[in-house]
Amino acid sequence: MSKPASTDAGKVMETIVSLAKRRGFVFQSSEIYGGLNGCWDYGPMGVEMLNNLKQQWWREMTYRENVEGLDASILMHPRTWEASGHVENFTDPMIDCKQCKSRYRIDVILEELSLKKKKDILRQLAPGAFEGQLKDEVVEKEFAARTATDAAFQGILPLISCPNCGNKGTFTDARKFNLMFKTFVGPVEDSSAVVYLRPETAQGIFVNFLNVQSATRQKIPFGIAQIGKAFRNEINTKNFLFRTREFEQMEMQFFVKPGSDDAHFEYWRGERIHWYESLGMKKENLQWHRHEPGKLAHYAKDAYDIEYRFPFGWGEMEGVHNRTDYDLSRHEQFSGKSLKVFDEDTKERFTPYVIETSAGASRSFMAFLVDSYHEEEAPTAEGGSETRTVLKLHPLLAPIKVAVFPLVNRDGMPEIARKIEADLRPQFRVFYDESGAVGRRYRRQDEIGTPFCVTVDSQTLADRTVTVRHRDSMRQDRVAVDALRRFFSDAFS
Amino acid sequence: MSKPASTDAGKVMETIVSLAKRRGFVFQSSEIYGGLNGCWDYGPMGVEMLNNLKQQWWREMTYRENVEGLDASILMHPRTWEASGHVENFTDPMIDCKQCKSRYRIDVILEELSLKKKKDILRQLAPGAFEGQLKDEVVEKEFAARTATDAAFQGILPLISCPNCGNKGTFTDARKFNLMFKTFVGPVEDSSAVVYLRPETAQGIFVNFLNVQSATRQKIPFGIAQIGKAFRNEINTKNFLFRTREFEQMEMQFFVKPGSDDAHFEYWRGERIHWYESLGMKKENLQWHRHEPGKLAHYAKDAYDIEYRFPFGWGEMEGVHNRTDYDLSRHEQFSGKSLKVFDEDTKERFTPYVIETSAGASRSFMAFLVDSYHEEEAPTAEGGSETRTVLKLHPLLAPIKVAVFPLVNRDGMPEIARKIEADLRPQFRVFYDESGAVGRRYRRQDEIGTPFCVTVDSQTLADRTVTVRHRDSMRQDRVAVDALRRFFSDAFS
Predict the structure, then answer these.
(1) Is the bond leading into A158 cis (omega within 30 degrees of zero)?
(2) Which residues of A454-491 are buried (b: 16+ CB within 10 A; e: fewer)?
(3) Closest Cα to residue A466, out of A410, A407, A426?
(4) What is the pTM of this model?
(5) Chain A residues within 8 A of B333 when measuring between CB atoms
(6) CB B35 to CB A77 under 8 A?
(7) Which residues contact A273 (CB under 8 A, 6 or more apart)?
(8) In this predicted model, what pLDDT tens digit does every residue of A444-454 receive, in sequence order?
């Protein structure tokens, strides 16, 4: 019965962004002032869904004997980011046009060149090597290969024009632009007072490794899990919640004995993909992407991303990485504090390896939103058919758990419905609605993914039963009023 | 049986800070690098307790028909802070010593002067007015009165010496120092790219007022609630989690019709103080502080703080404020967007008044920690007595809900205990411990406030019952293993 909402990726995203705003999932940040690029606010439905998602992750990851929780501050000692390599390496290459003073990220300029222009450049770079007809794929591939390094950038710069003023050869050399937001602590704005908004939550875990270990008396292997905001001064934000400047991560770093790292890596890969599936994400929209050995981050021994098939293409939702002992070793080196642990077997001290599972809360929120979005033909009360929009969210993720309606606003129905609402409210996020035709009320709940609607009707007056309508199947059961709490406790456990 | 842990306030705080670190409630941020002043990390026990606290607040405030949730971004459009008045007014007066270049907050310098010095200054400021013996209270009061304004600062500056180099008359004039952290969005660090880390969460609610209202179809009166981090570049951080640079707020803004504001104000005052009491905070440690009419913030019509009796004195934990239509009017003015609502009765549009309940999550976390801290004499297994440290946290706030012990590590007891642990774990944060004497295991749980300990002993092998030990009374009940889940479901509902 389901069909893709639209074959046009841009249209699908537009529909979802529009629903997200209209129904209170996601608003542009500070929208009344024109918005702040790369920042988004979660509305009444969004914050419930995001909290549900984070709570599910937290239970999944920390209700284990060997994983501890943490909530480290966003502002950290600046040496942290020297040790982590972010001060030196967390950069994008930027160029300025000397003519018109426009500033660009060089990889973006290159990406946005036309195929024809790319072909031109290839021919100028290697005269004779690219003659005759060239397939588009060949051009793209060769161009990407020849622009993959810093040195290559410099060679290409004289060949391209400024997208703003159109002049050629007016670019400065490429400079590194650090993606960390910086600010100043205390009253003096000088370099000694610089601190950064953390660009990832992981380092908060590494610097607390010993504190957590000694407070909890955990032994290797064990993990530390954290949910929190991180910030990156992205030059190009895009795709709704996918690439933003402010975002939330759900990370777990698992500390293991070197040599056992591959086994733990496999274990956590299994655990993590299973989590998305257990919350109803469609298998066909999930895939693993392994980082090629030559393209691994400097700290990584192996790395897989869990990708989701977004309307704009496959995109990373979570990374499972073997970070080796890189981080702890660097922090040892920069802090002068030993971060080694004692091995009871060999009686030697060693620096643990780290298996990391790093999920984007904001990205997986968007993935669950996209994945649950359906447009379906549904029968109307009059015997016809209409298109209904329904978010088939897992009940544990749904922002509203139960909606309660009186069929009509008389004969004591509203009073009974209110009573049911009050009875359920302490346990569940419930919603009461008495306005409009009941069919329209169902549709409004479908749009925000409410799994169950309870309707009080004339039969209720006779036998104290109500209809419980299931969102996905639209099946309606009769349930005794007095059995509702138990019914929903079971449904959401 | 309870007694104050110590009569010395500093000592009490020291004891609690030390417990907080040792048992994993709160660590200094980036401690291995010497810490970052005014920033703290929540460890494994702290994050559970903080999350419990936030979750209780969220349920209390948003599981209502007329309150919606929100999670706005930390970075907001900079016009927001012009409208709110923070760019202009959220400042501390600072001075520099021209000699040694030290920088000070002038109110702090004045506060830290000796009584003798204050007396000297009073006599110089008003020759003849303060002759003979002066009571200390009179000096403090007069000095405070004469240093309460910006103009007064300037007159006093020539009379005081630099605390660092000791020179007198070397201070610059006082300048305003803004307490907002600023950073730059995008690649260019100029004034057009300045954004601020929000110094309060409230404005995220005001700028989203219309979006929330139209997505939810709420009508006045209704509220919007939010939990989130805020940042203030405090020059003097102090008292552990009380005055920090990074902190978390739990705020609700309730939008009402002008004229009904006083009644709503009283309602919310009642609701809010009751919340702390319902979570077990001692009444004698809570008080209302009303802002004197002459000292109200520029936006406020009336304001009360809920204060807690911290070891260092009474301190604000939450403010309940009547903010009038100040904020919405200012945002209307600065954004050019109407934020008025339609009155069905009078058929006129009006700007709602706002009743705000603004609680510090970090501060109330600390208050609950302090409030629950007890040192008591308790009997030992050998018939003697010892001092036990116990956090008498409300069960809903306790980080670990149930600890499970085998009495000894043999006879199948560990296996049964493991089975109980596994059975409870999906629902509760549980902890398994088999090391050391059971009395010591109880003490360890007392220190982190675990409400129940389950012990598997030899009788368990005979009749499938365990002891359930209550933290505060230390009473021990026998409960059937099969009834444990129900027992704890009831205890934590």
Answers:
(1) no
(2) bbbbeebeeeebbbbbebeeeeeeebebeebeebbeee
(3) A407
(4) 0.91
(5) none
(6) yes
(7) A286, A288, A306
(8) 999 999 999 99
